[in-house]
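Changelog-adjacent note: as of this version, every example in the card shows the full chain rather than a window. The one below runs 1320 residues end to end.
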Amino acid sequence: MVPGEENQLVPKEDVFWRCRQNIFDEMKKKFLQIENAAEEPRVLCIIQDTTNSKTVNERITLNLPASTPLRKLFEDVANKVGYINGTFDLVWGNGINTADMAPLDHTSDKSLLDANFEPGKKNFLHLTDKDGEQPQILLEDSSAGDDSVHDRFIGPLPREGSVGSTSDYVSQNYSYSSILNKSETGYVGLVNQAMTCYLNSLLQTLFMTPEFRNALYKWEFEESEEDPVTSIPYQLQRLFVLLQTSKKRAIETTDVTRSFGWDSSEAWQQHDVQELCRVMFDALEQKWKQTEQADLINELYQGKLKDYVRCLECGYEGWRIDTYLDIPLVIRPYGSSQAFASVEEALHAFIQPEILDGPNQYFCERCKKKCDARKGLRFLHFPYLLTLQLKRFDFDYTTMHRIKLNDRMTFPEELDMSTFIDVEDENSLIYELFSVMVHSGSAAGGHYYACIKSFSDEQWYSFNDQHVSRITQEDIKKTHGGSSGSRGYYSSAFASSTNAYMLIYRLKDPARNAKFLEVDEYPEHIKNLVQRERELEEQEKRQREIERNTCKIKLFCLHPVKQVMMENKLEVHKDKTLKEAVEMAYKMMDLEEVIPMDCCRLVKYDEFHDYLERSYEGEEDTPMGLLLGGVKSTYMFDLLLETRKPDQVFQSYKPGEVMVKVHVVDLKAESVAAPVTVRAYLNQTVTEFKQLISKAIHLPAETMRIVLERCHNDLRLLTVPSKTLKAEGFFRSNKVFVESSETLDYQMAFTDSHLWKLLDRHANTIRLFVLLPEQSPGSYSKRTACQKAGGDSGGNVDDDCDRVKGPVGSLKSVEAILEESTEKLKSLSLQQQQDGDNGDSSKSTETSDFENIESPLNERDSSASVDNRELEQHIQTSDPENFQSEERSDSDVNNDRSTSSVDSDILSSSHSSDTLCNADNAQIPLANGLDSHSITSSRRTKANEGKKETWDTAEEDSGTDSEYDESGKSRGEIQYMYFKAEPYAADEGSGEGHKWLMVHVDKRITLAAFKQHLEPFVGALSSHFKVFRVYASNQEFESVRLNETLSSFSDDNKITIRLGRALKKGEYRVKVYQLLVNEQEPCKFLLDAVFAKGMTVRQSKEELIPQLREQCGLELSTDRFRLRKKTWKNPGTVFLDYHIYEEDINISSNWEVFLEVLDGVEKMKSMSQLAVLSRRWRPSEMKLDPFQEVVLESSSVDELREKLCEISGIPLEDIEFAKGRGTFPCDISVLDIHQDLDWNPKVSTLNVWPLYICDDGAVIFYRDKTEELMELTDEQRNELMKKESSRLQKTGHRVTYSPRKEKALKIYLDGAPNKDLTQD
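Full-length structure tokens:
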């Protein structure tokens, strides 16, 4: 290598290493920056653009460092959404009206953290108009603008996911040709109240008509003659003034609609814009009578035409002159599939005469006979403002539905009407288009907007409710309708549904064409009106500014006398001081006469956790905006107006403290005291916390036990002295129980201690009010006594009664039973005390805080030392896997007869299945420390095996469980559950003979055990009474799941006890109704019965017979009636005698069946047959015959016709039939049946459309097609109509079915509609 080359290599190598080092240094810096940024908290901002309807449902998210300045936030948002920075505002938002919020400063260098953004949480912001003006779009390069212009569309904004939007946000090229704010267009929009787009389109067109606006301004309102609220011209005048002078983006139309006499419901009715035009013009003419504007509508909009008929034989012509306000043009001729190509072609067709020949010949007055004639229309005069209605809404007689014709029809910008008039007119008839009212949608509904040309600048604008934008002539051409070829056949559904509906032309006449009045040309009354409206708008603006600077926060106050927590909303300006806010809150809570104001203060409060966060000592002069962290839509905290007595001192609440409610427990008295509030710190130890509590409640800390209730029934004993409260699970607001007795209970394991049992009982005990049944004398009392003596042995009842000592009539009353059971339980309690261990042996006779209620029964026995000792029994908790709170409502008892009957429920249990097995008597521990016998969890699964789903929806089981296991042993032998009952004096009106019990019971007790406890008070075995839960609406539902607990019950729930045998496993309560097909009320309730799984239909009929005899007076045999399915009021499948419940017939709780008395022998023998109910219609007599049942062997229409022929004698070829509609008996007016039903459907089987007869019970109407319909006079029709209306109202059936009728558009001149009940 030469020396020269060697000298050149050295510097290159140095440069390489220096560059490498620099790269490493830069990478190191970036890693450090990333590491620092990772440590910095970040702020999640969610921004919603509320400036237009396209973006209101879309949101953008920004995750920024907390140190980011507000200025940078605005820049990022502007770049994200495509707006010019500084042309929009950001305000706090959380679903609250943005008018109530102050905007953020877009020039501020304040960090997000200093601006009250919360790191780690969602911060919601609204992007809104700035100073009432819409944000300006950040325009793209001109090179990209050509395509956007080509794709402009002036119709409704596209929906979510349509072209023009992206997944991140929305495209900066909106669907309008350009979104311009009102400062550029100079026009104000109208707010859509709900469905008032049709009204907005017409109002904007009238406003942009110089001749109409100027004439309206010249009219002067006389307040002495009319109420301004109901004056339509005055409210239109005000609206036009606001449209011309307001600085708002859009204004409301509610004052105008109120002058129409409309209420808020009218805003939800969509009408036709042409119909509104007619009705509004009529109303204005009525209001303008005897004024200068009386003939304004006719002068501007009225034309004349001649309706003529010319005889082709003699040339005689008859005619009349008609006036018109608009010309309706047909889009597509009747019977043609080809639409007219243009408005000119449709106008020619409008005046094209037709030939009256054949049966349509015209009777000529001159020829005195019917002759061929030519009939047509001729225009005699065209109005100054020509209105053309394109009749796009038609009726399709094939589908019998309204349709919209979206065919393409062009219309010129200039229209020469001279070719359509016969009268020679020296004046020009050239009209220029200035308004196109567009409809987008279908015949069922859609949206209106207007494209209007301004006569001031000859520019076209789109007035789409509150959005006003500039458009071009190309946009107008897109409203011609039809679809462009590039879109394809199926892709034009949306585009083709947007097309012109009304066109308004103005005559080009320089002598008549007016210009809008300038401000200096306004009449004096309009100048005054403009001034008043400006003052009102300024006042509204000032009020909005005040609202934006007002803090709105929830305010609470515990009334110092009533001790009731009051709630209100405090609205205070951000510059008001804390002292002024206290005065406002003091007056708001009406405490002036209760307590001095210096005994009140505002503190930061968390109502959800009932937690006092902090107090504001020394900050009386601090502004509320600074104190609350700014003006926000919602606050994460509340305020509490705290009060004190004059001799007390307010406690200081410091941030970081936690509130603890301390309940003192007395083991001897078995009571839990009301809470005492103390404040502590999370970093305090348990030992320090004990010292704090000791000072507050004066209990020794050495023997103190503290139990924290972290959530319901989650008790935690604080045993580690050095552990902090935070580590123990303390939060903002906490609840603890404190005990400091000298007993040895603290040496026991906590879950075995007396303290745990007492707290566990305290947490799970609820108070219930039980309504006992009225004691029924006679047979039921005798039966109950016998059953108590003999059990369910199934032996002879009379023999059992003979074994009962004493007369039946000597059964004790409820009070006597209660007193006797109390005495027995005293000895039981004494025995338990003797058998008890340690602390339990010294149990006091005093009751807990929820048990201290005097019992009037104990006054009879002065020797009783205890008032109503607790009923303490050992109850086994059944089915631990179902240890949950679920209330099964199986029987609605609204019908007194169905719930109060006693004898009907005392049925044979031969078909019941008590199959609850208990093979292993070993105890198993439950999660809550209880013990229980093991009950196999697979019994429900096994019970479901082999089920067949035939007619009803299959259920898992009947929803009931037996109260006894297979050996007959009661399920109440193991686990202790608290129960205490005592008489309760209920309110008046509960009924004579009824007694109330107030029961304190552990809600973990099963329903079976609860019923066993109630046995001595009811005076019957638990299997012979039912438990009904009473809800807030006084509706009662039976509780039947015996193995479930009372966990779904809460304090002060009411329970009703009704006598009657409760269901056992596999049994179902069934409501039996009689089916009377030819009665006015075909469904009549008979009785409640009990059907069992495995029972046949015949067996259930046999058990029903004696009940029907005793309760309903029906003497029936099993072959004289049938049972059938009942669905609402409709009769269904006929049940055959050999069918078995749960195998062939799926039965469920709260089941209902029909009982139908047969006239003869049962015709239904197999499931392949089909029973329908037929009814003959006699049109010549205008009456319906009674129902007759027809049993078919198949679903053949031919067989049905043959059967109808047999029972009626109508020839087979003349029979027509139709299926009945609605609920049985498918009532229909005799005035409508002949034409409203679908007679003689073209089908061969009954189980296809439109019949769909697949089950028994369908209603078939039939008639003789040769029988003529009776001709009725008007008097006969009216009389029959009244009779039918009365009949159908009694049966609850509608006369005919019809879709929802459209509400007619009306404007009420007196400002309020007349309530005419005879009109729809």
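Structural remarks: The chain has 29 helices and 54 strands.
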